[in-house]
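Feature request, filed as a ticket because there's no other form

It would be nice if the structure record came with a short human-readable summary line next to the tokens. Right now we just get the raw output. Example of a typical job, pasted below so the devs can see what we mean:
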Amino acid sequence: MNVARVNEITVGYDDQGGGDPLVLVHGHPFDRSMWRPQIDHLSRAGHRVIAPDLRGYGETTVVAGSTPFETFARDITGLLDHLGIGTFALGGLSMGGQIALELHRLFPDRIRALLLADTSARAETPQGRAWRHDLADRLVREGMAPYAAEVLPKMVAPHNIRTLPDVAEHVLGMMRATSPEGAAAALRGRAERPDYVDMLAEIAVPTLVVVGADDEFTPVDVAESVHERIPGATLAVIEGAAHMPNLERPDEFNRALHALLMSAS
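Raw output as currently delivered:
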């Protein structure tokens, strides 16, 4: 395990391979192990892949309360500064994609290419903010196990739960292992995130938008809306996958991501 002291917390991270760096940001309520198929494949293909655990997740320090997206973004750039990395390709899935957009808002000149997977650029609605705050309270009260069992069939397509039991068990295990306090802090911060829609037109680096064809959290039309607003972006709809196409269909996901990185090299 690699660890670094950043912004008064300890960050756990993977750093594998050599060449131009790619930073991958995990979603909620997961950890950096969700990127293992991409880390293994892309590091063998000549890329340096860095995948941190976000504040409150995995092997990174849990800080209770509320974690704004700007804090997540500055934790990541603090880690990259620690590693001596200036510019980088950046990817994120779901909440990780929104944190990637926050990174672009704060540090656009550091990003060479952008992957936005199964994510939305819009700010939360009033109803959505209330739901996220309520869910945060529920996770602290009940723990992660009931929520994990409830959302697994949306994270991983039901047919993949049956045919890819190792993937389903991995996703379920990540959710169960997440700190309720860390997840709750992220939910409260996510509820108050800014709207990134207008910024999409300002993205001037090669960009790949990916979505699982069966994603219920961020359906294909949401991905299409993001894609059409980013000049020159590429859209990849991954058949047979839901919210975790990088795990449900890693070969297709990796091919699309590798093509993005080659276009930015």
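Something like this underneath would help us a lot:
The mean pLDDT is 97.
The longest strand covers residues 9-16.
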